[in-house]
Amino acid sequence: MTHIDELASLGTSTWLDDLSRERLTSGNLQEVIDNKSIVGVTTNPSIFAAAMSAGDAYDEQIAALREAGAAVDEAVYAMTVDDVRDACDIFLPIYEATDGRDGRVSIEVDPRISADHDATIAQARQLWKRVDRPNVMIKIPATSESIPAITDALAEGISVNVTLIFSVARYREVIAAYRTGVQRAAAAGHDVSQIRSVASFFVSRLDVEIDRRLEEIGSEEALALRGKVGIANARRAYAVFQEIGEKDLPEGAHVQRPLWASTGVKNPDYPATLYVTELAGPETVNTMPEPTIDAVLEQGGLHGDTLSGTAEEAQAVFEQLVAVGIDLDDVFEVLEREGVEKFVASWSELLDSMATQLQ
C-alpha cells in the first residue's frame, strides 16, 4: 500500500495535473496509473502549451493539419481533444470501477472567453461532443461572468470541473450553480447520476500572493502567518462543503467534491507535500504535478483526516490576516484576474507557436 493509496483511504483521490502526447504514446500515462495510483487527470492551457512546445510527438498531426489548411485555433483544439479523448480511454476502467467518481480527464474552455457567457457555454457543448467520452469533464472558470454558463452546462448533462476558485464567497456561488444546474437537469429528464462535478480551489497561489504582502508589512505577527493561508482557506471551504454541499440535490445526484489545485509548493522552504498532508479528508480530490506525487510516495507524512473539524482554527488565521492589515477582497480579486490572464497568455503563446508551425 503506497502513501497515495493511504491518501485514498482517507477519502482523497489523487489526479495528475499534466498530460501530453508523449505520455500517451510512450505508455507513460498507464505506467503512472499502475505504479503511482493516480485515478484522474487535469489539464489547462499552460499544460498544453508546454506539451506542444517540446519534442516531436505532435509533428505528424501538425503536418496533416497544415496539409488540410486548418486554422490555428482548430488545429490546437484538434490536438488537445485527441489527447483528452485518448486519456479518457485509458482511464475508462477506473471510471467504470468507481461508478464515474474517478477516472476523469478535464479539458478547459478557451480562457479568452471567460467573460462571455454565450461563448463559454457554446464551447463547453462543443468540447463535450467532440471528446465524446462519458468520463470527460469540461473546465469552466469560476468568474462571475462564467457562473451562469456552469449552471447551463450542468443543466444539459455536461460534467463540469469548475476551476480558478480562490475565495470562499465565490465557492458558495459555485455550490449554488451546481445545485441549480443538476436540479434543472433532473427536471429536463437527464439522468443526474451520470453528472459529476468538482470545484477546484487554487491553494499555493494564495500563499504566494499573501506571503508577499505579509513580508511587505514585516511585523512579527504578519511574518508568523506565512505559509498558513492557502491551507486555512481550503479548510474554510471544506467546512462550507460539509455544511451545504449535499443540500437540495435531486435524487440520484452526486455531491460536488472540492478539488485542491495548484498543490505544488512555490516556496522551496515549505515541505513538498504541504498541500497534500494538510488537506486530506473525505470526499475530496487533490490534483498534483508529478514531482508532488513523487514526494508523497517517497515521504508520506500523512497524519489522518486534516480537514474535518478545522474550521475554527482556519477562521482564526483569517482574523489574524485582517488584524495585520491584509485586504482579502483585493487579494482574491487579484488572484482571479491573474489566474485568467496567465492562462490567456499561455494559450496565446501556444496559438502563436502553432501559427508558425502551420505555415
From TrEMBL:
Active-site residues (renumbered): K139
Class of the enzyme per the UniProt entry, highest EC level: transferase
Pathway linked to the protein: Carbohydrate degradation; pentose phosphate pathway; D-glyceraldehyde 3-phosphate and beta-D-fructose 6-phosphate from D-ribose 5-phosphate and D-xylulose 5-phosphate (non-oxidative stage): step 2/3
GO terms for biological process, alphabetical: carbohydrate metabolic process; pentose-phosphate shunt
InterPro entries (UniProt xref): Aldolase_TIM, TAL/FSA, Transaldolase_2, Transaldolase_AS
EC number: 2.2.1.2
Keywords of this entry: Cytoplasm, Pentose shunt, Schiff base, Transferase
A Pfam family it matches: TAL_FSA
Catalytic activity: D-sedoheptulose 7-phosphate + D-glyceraldehyde 3-phosphate = D-erythrose 4-phosphate + beta-D-fructose 6-phosphate
Coiled coil: none
Highest taxon, organism lineage: Bacteria
NCBIfam families assigned: PRK03343.1 (NF002881), tal_mycobact (TIGR00876)
Similarity comment: Belongs to the transaldolase family. Type 2 subfamily.
Name under which the protein is recorded: Transaldolase
Organism of provenance: Corynebacterium hylobatis
